[in-house]
């Protein structure tokens, strides 16, 4: 898959400002970025649902603008919410999608049965989808997107709203797809999801790619180890920030929702002891203190100045 200089504007808003991306066949590429970064717009263009204002995009070697109809038969798309009919059974849903793809009846039936087995839904095939769990619905949605055996599958935040078990079920299904030769482009705001699944990552911010690499390569760009300090109340964070700054000279990041102050220490000897002394000096008790390697969240903060995790509001002042 290849994206070359793709741009898209909606009125005064530039959703994409010249996107460049290349994804090798048979791999998973995680496309990461905060809301408004342009992830969904990029997927909609690649899935032939939007035309770019300029630039070129190819799926399995096919131009998605000049030859959009042929491209549609080489790609699959699963959006943020499962696009299945709750009143039909699992098998009924897949056969319905087979008709929409104009598959012959026998082929649609065979593909439905094959995919129900691949996604571990055979036992539930004749149950109406309204009785399915969230993870089962997402797996059925993935199965529907694979009826025509696409070369490239676009997953736009596929585990939004799922509990940990449902997310694990979808992750397992995605890994199985790649083992069978499918190329997967995954947009997500869950950094652990990208870390677990992606062979490569493209970080998008303000409509363009700001960094690419494997998860480890991106984390190595940040380099420094971090110390996380968890305090009893969010009201303690301001003084904790002061203590961490005095101890290390760095600029701590505060996460009020988890009562955590984090600072890069870059292997500085004695940093832990210095932080403990400064916290004691300002009278701040701690619930926990951890020395850790950098994460993809640290990469985001370094590259974009903000986190993709909407449940945390970082404060740097």
UniProtKB/TrEMBL annotation:
Predominant subcellular localization, coarse grouping: membrane
Limits of the ABC transporter domain: 1-231
MF terms (GO), sorted A to Z: ATP binding
UniProt membrane topology term: Peripheral membrane protein
Compartments in which it is found: Cell membrane
Domain of life of the organism encoding this protein: Bacteria
Domain ACT: residue ranges: 260-317
Keyword annotations from UniProtKB, A to Z: Antibiotic resistance, ATP-binding, Cell membrane, Membrane, Nucleotide-binding, Translocase, Transport
PANTHER family according to UniProt: ABC TRANSPORTER ATP-BINDING PROTEIN (PTHR42711), DOXORUBICIN RESISTANCE ATP-BINDING PROTEIN DRRA (PTHR42711:SF19)
Family: Belongs to the ABC transporter superfamily. Drug exporter-1 (DrugE1) (TC 3.A.1.105) family.
Protein name as catalogued: Daunorubicin resistance protein DrrA family ABC transporter ATP-binding protein
